[in-house]
Amino acid sequence: MTTEVRVPTLGESVTEATVATWFKKPGDSVAADEMLCELETDKVTVEVPSPAAGVLADIVAQEGETVGVDALLANIAEAGDAGATTVEERPSQKKQDTAAGEKAAASGGKEVKVMVPSLGESVTEATVSTWFKKEGDSVAQDEMLCELETDKVSVEVPAPASGTLTKIVAGEGTTVDASAQLAVIASGDAPAAAAPADQGTAPQAATAATGARDVEDAPSAKKAMAEAGIDRDAVQGSGRDGRVMKEDVAKALSAATAPAPQAAAPAQAPRAPVAAEDAAREERVKMTRLRQTIARRLKDAQNAAAILTTYNEVDMTEVMALRNEYKELFEKKHGARLGFMSFFTKACCHALKEVPEVNAEIDGTDIVYKNFVHMGIAAGTPQGLVVPVIRDADQKSFADLEKEIAEKGRRARDGKLSMAEMQGGTFTISNGGVYGSLMSSPILNPPQSGILGMHKIQDRPMVINGEIRIRPMMYLALSYDHRIVDGKGAVTFLVRVKEALEDPRRLLMDL
């Protein structure tokens, strides 16, 4: 008996969708409610779960096809009918599956699939950056198999069972979605290494699986390219494995027909020619997903916001004296070191109450004022700049702030931060002084409207009551979105921060 898989309800006024991605192929076993495919409408993306357990007998609507509500997508056969289902596989795929089956049989255990773990809210794909094991290696349960990179965090994938890693489905550099399979483990007591013949064929199988497979463009895209007379090489595919979708053809046609602005410069200037002897000494490394996201977000901030920076300087004498007086007692009582970040966080929270537009954001034609402070603390890591968020910082004590800042900074450097811990910030502090920066203009962290830049503390001669004194001074820089923050508000905010730091008693008196 077969069970039909049909297009679910797509929402009010939505009558059709495009089949974007199939997560399964004919012949694959599926569990009830397991995601089979993904549909795209003009408003949302809809995942289609399996209505029953069994085997995917055939796919009726291929990737790229447009389907209406309740249209037939595929058929699922009962597990007992799996043998009767004929599925034509590529020779390379048959060879891999046969080899994996032989390894599983040799180990005496059952096959366990290694799937992509939860990547966090709004993250739909990741890149396999590093495999710590190779095919034929023995693995222990919860031992790290590989590492995935998303556009925000790195995710380690542990082994779901002990046994032998018989097959790597997604090799290094492969982009996988949130429900993809990464590998196969033959559970149970397995030999420490596979036979030499298996070791020799594993790289070939991986190459066949990742680099040499044919990519079939969507039928609707082929038809659109034929009608428009556009060459396949002129279209950049956005579908799975780089396949061309119908909307990619539309984008290519729009780009070809749209007049180029006279004064606009290209998004990225072409690389200048490099001499052959210099090229031989260069090293080309692909940007990580995190670095690509950092680059894109910073450029988007410059393009979208009207960024302006105002500067001031603060005499750190009183803060340094207070810190030196109480740091030992503070650490003894609270188990945390007393640094400068808690003072700056408190001073910013105090100033944000007086100038709330610096803590606001633009949403279309509305200004959204936040009656709370989720403070972003920028942290440099080997992978790039990340901004963990201290939630409700305005409600926390000095000790709570120092503990949380230290803990999240440590986890940021180790790549252990979750997506939720880097979302929802309303204002950001960036401390370039730890690297020796004397002055800089920080870039906004969208959609926030303000960011404070701290810098190096340096002794400078200052005139105090008509006398020249040597004082530990720090330059402060506030970058703000001039669309909603006026110059008066920005200067007032920075002056309030300066006053609170030069006389910390003002924080206690709420002055």
Describe the fold and architecture.
By secondary structure, the protein is of the alpha+beta class. It is built from 11 helices and 27 strands. Strands 17, 20, 23, 24, 25, 26 and 27 form a 7-stranded mixed sheet that branches. Strands 1-8-6-3 form a 4-stranded antiparallel sheet, with no helix packed on it. Strands 5-4-2-7 form a 4-stranded antiparallel sheet, with no helix packed on it. α1 (91-107) runs antiparallel to α2 (196-210), α3 runs parallel beside α4 (246-257) and α8 (341-354) crosses α10. The longest helix is centred in the middle third of the chain and has 18 residues, at 317-334. The protein is elongated and about 90 Å long. Residues 82-95, 103-107, 190-213 and 259-266 have low confidence and may be disordered.
Shape: elongated
What is the helix content?
25-40%
Count of domain modules:
3
CATH superfamily of the largest domain: Chloramphenicol acetyltransferase-like domain
Distance between the termini: 76 Å
Please, what is the average pLDDT?
79
Number of strands: 27
CATH topology grouping of the largest domain: Chloramphenicol Acetyltransferase
Strand content: 25-35%
**With helices defined by DSSP (H or I, 4 residues minimum), what is the helix count?**
11
User: Which architecture of the largest domain does the CATH hierarchy give at level 2?
Assistant: 2-Layer Sandwich
Largest sheet: 7 strands, mixed
